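Regression test attached.
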Amino acid sequence: MDILTEKSSMRRAADRWRAEGRRIALVPTMGYFHEGHLSLMDMARKAADRVVVSLFVNPAQFGPSEDLARYPRDLERDAALAEARGVDCLFAPPAEEMYPAGYQTWVEVTDLAAGLCGASRPGHFRGVCTVVAKLFNIVRPDVAVFGAKDFQQLQVVRRMAADLDLPVEILAHPVVREPDGLAMSSRNTYLSPEERRSALSLFSSLELAARLVREGEREAGRIEAAVAAHIRSAPGTRIDYVFVGDPETLRPVKRLAGPTLLALAVWVGKTRLIDNTILEPCPTGPMRAD
Amino acid sequence: MDILTEKSSMRRAADRWRAEGRRIALVPTMGYFHEGHLSLMDMARKAADRVVVSLFVNPAQFGPSEDLARYPRDLERDAALAEARGVDCLFAPPAEEMYPAGYQTWVEVTDLAAGLCGASRPGHFRGVCTVVAKLFNIVRPDVAVFGAKDFQQLQVVRRMAADLDLPVEILAHPVVREPDGLAMSSRNTYLSPEERRSALSLFSSLELAARLVREGEREAGRIEAAVAAHIRSAPGTRIDYVFVGDPETLRPVKRLAGPTLLALAVWVGKTRLIDNTILEPCPTGPMRAD
């Protein structure tokens, strides 16, 4: 596996593969790999002939009061994990390679990025879109793999690629969870043992919502309220948002009429965690007589 | 010459040429060709094996009170002119092909786009950058040709391409002028015979400035004042800006120490015209004794 830090060498490697007719997959990451990242790499491996994993803790997507400085990093371990997963190239540029002096161009998706994480993290998706557009332009992948844990990011990136006519197929990998259900995240390393227990309330609230829907609940407000109450019952949690809405437009819905997104952002101590699921109201559910 | 209106057919044509090893040039235009456009096509012809001219009156770069609706259009004439100049493909998509329902992604250059035309036309360069990024992603040209008449646009597009890692070389073609010096522009068709005479004050003020510099003037403020007074002496003119500054950063300078941009935007009646030149202070000019 090659480890490249310069855009020019990354572009040359990708150009060479393209000239050989290879299909290229890109997995954009911020590193500190867990099984979630590794599953994205497996998915990329199946979808293409050459797999590039980018590892870049993107300063542009962190707010001034966020955890850029303490975001966990371990390039050596990440390189070993990626290589073991059959990755062909790890692209790990320094920040000044991506944002040299005088940098001043930004890519922004408006509506889809306005609410949810976009509301609590101003500028976050602008940073995400900009770095992803740059990575797409450097690597020119045929396919790129994103995790569905960051559901809004997935939809924002899909929109950005379609709107800007970037000829890349975006694949989504389902949320990868710890055995007890906690969604894998590099930020889980911030959690104390107590916080780790409280963090489980995110997943169990998704299960609660799925059960309510199975039992016939269709009112978004009642689902949100039940989820919020469940999370609040766990010590040290503070809800940023509980959202029930359309998975494509990310607009809230009042009643569930088809596959519906339930997305959460919750502070557990000083750590902000997100999770989501798609609620599937079955039209012949037990509460319906027709 | 092919006339294509769909992104997918444009992309296929360009992909085919690329696979054959052809070098592709793109000339983005809003149509209603004059000799300025045709000179860009000649430059593109020399720089590449295949020349694509895009013809798109981009709604995103017009303000709500601007001349989008009355901007001159003549596709048939344009197609004949482009074909005669050896263009391989005219890409003329309808607006809904470039901005379908739900479109919401924008590319923005901050500092370089903030002043001059960016100040008087809010959102203009956001529209320009977005459509140019899209055209670059559809055609993937090796080289793109822009006119130096829109000097700020040229520098903003250069910055955008470099910042977003778009692997395209940007070529600038010098301002093309009518025999009497008026910079060619599709908007010149708006001018009445009287306005056409007044419009000449833009070019003659550039000549005046060049003469002052040749005679030793180095104070930007005095050059600006002389240029402004000259333009104001022409009937029906109203100055938007007279700018003397650094051609790379587009920041104003107080004294001329090297090649310096003089850029103008002037209303002549209801028509806004722009022009510019690079002032070249000769270090051994007549006013210097050292």
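Expected vs. actual: identical. Chain A touches chain B through 25 residues (CB under 8 Å).
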